[in-house]
Specification:
By secondary structure, the protein is α/β, with parallel strands linked by helices. It has five helices and seven strands; from the N terminus they run E-H-E-H-E-E-E-H-E-H-E-H. It has a five-stranded parallel beta sheet, sandwiched between helices. It has a two-stranded antiparallel ribbon with strand order 4-5. The two termini are 12 Å apart.
Amino acid sequence: MRILLIEDEPANRALVRAILARTDGSGLPPIELIEAGTLGEGRAALDDCEIDVALVDVRLPDGSGLDLAAELGRRPAAERPRTVIVSASVLPAERATALATGADAFLGKPFGRADLIATLLALAA
């Protein structure tokens, strides 16, 4: 499973990296993590290789991850990664707005290992 993490905060990228490094026994296939700190880097990664799941932060230095999620949502299903919006804005209206982009899931910050693994397992099913 190739996962693209688009997140500008190094500590948040380190958390995801640490969680995904310890997925043995979780039911997930082997994971290759690709990291991007900006939308531009994320778009480049999406153009360079096939991504299975994109974990997209909302607030990025060069724009909104919601815009990228909407772009991905307009792609044919066979040509787009499953998209998870990751945000600290977890109010119901903000969650609904995020999912209205066409994203497949929403993960509120802060999240733990169980939350991330459960989300990935649901998307892999």
